[in-house]
Design a protein that fits this description.
Layout: E1 20-29, E2 34-37, E3 44-58, E4 61-66, E5 69-73, E6 79-96, H1 99-103, E7 111-113, H2 117-133, H3 138-159, H4 169-177, H5 185-192, H6 196-207, H7 211-229, H8 234-240, H9 246-257, H10 261-267
Antiparallel strand pairs: 1-6, 2-6, 3-4, 3-5, 3-6, 5-7
Helix pairs in contact: 2-3, 8-9
Length: 277
């Protein structure tokens, strides 16, 4: 292989939400259970109900917290909550701040149903276990388990969104893992199980470009990384990435990055780049 896979990095423009796990309660309640928070919780919280039923009341409404639901509650909201029907099993996690929920576009202040409750319960149990036995790095683990819970719900919500199109996930994985070989679009259409028209429409909605343009962007990014990290010649890179020839490759590279491949390599610091051709 004379080309490099593309680097994957978190762009500086992507916001990383502030988050700090504070506490978790596992509650198994009967009809005698009722709690009142006249001034609201001191920090945000999330109810994760896995069995039975409870109700949550605040000045504007009364919500039922049934099995298979979660509810994110902002800090400072006067409220009360109680068991209904003699059985309510839930976890309650306090955290700071709501940034993570807002960035994931999770519903705040109303119950939301989830099909991920078994995994959510597993994460809550692992969180509690880490706080009981204090393994190495348990503080970090607690933060990660709590964040993973929110990410679980966020990914579920996003997969139901109009532009997410999760049926394209495997197609994108295949494209990224096969940068160095021809990958006919018709193969990708067949893999998706969609009609050609629907596939192209959903792919553009998901990525902002056509499949052929997306694959070209991957190849050019791979070529750029190869120029930075290997001594492969422009001709070798063009051949490895299945461009028509080195001149066609050079033209596309210059259109994308503003300089030819040779000029780009010459502009690199001494510790980067291979031989100058």
């Amino acid at each position: 292989m004379v080309y490099m896979n593309i680097p994957y990095a978190l762009d500086d423009s992507v916001p990383v939400p502030a988050f700090r796990f504070q506490s978790i309660w596992k509650v198994q309640a009967n009809d005698t259970y009722q709690a009142v928070q006249p001034r609201g919780f001191p920090s945000a919280g999330i109810f994760v109900t896995y069995e039975g039923r409870g109700t949550f009341t605040h000045p504007d409404r009364r919500d039922e917290l049934g099995a298979g639901t979660y509810m994110i509650v902002p800090a400072g909201l006067p409220c009360s909550y109680r068991c209904e029907g003699g059985d309510w099993k839930f976890f309650f996690i306090q955290f700071d701040s709501l940034d993570i929920a807002l960035q994931l576009e999770l519903t705040v202040g109303r119950p939301a149903a989830t099909a991920q409750m078994p995994e959510a319960v597993r994460l809550c149990k692992r969180l509690i276990d880490s706080l009981i036995v204090h393994p190495a790095g348990y503080g970090m683990a607690a933060q990660l388990y709590a964040q993973e819970l929110f990410l679980l719900f966020g990914e579920e919500r996003a997969s139901a969104g109009r532009n997410r199109h999760p049926e394209l996930d495997d197609v994108l994985f295949r494209m990224h893992r096969n940068i160095g070989r021809p990958l006919p679009v018709d193969e990708l259409v067949r893999q998706s199980g969609l009609s050609r028209t629907v596939f192209f429409a959903r792919f553009r909605s998901r990525t902002g470009m056509s499949p052929s343009r997306y694959m070209l962007e991957l190849k050019l990014a791979s070529a750029k990384a190869t120029l930075e990290t290997t001594d492969s010649s422009v001709k070798e890179i063009a051949a490895a990435l299945h461009f028509y020839d080195e001149f066609h490759f050079s033209k596309l590279f210059k259109q994308r990055y503003g300089v030819s491949p040779r000029a780009y390599r010459q502009s690199l610091p001494p510790h980067l780049g291979g031989v100058i051709e």
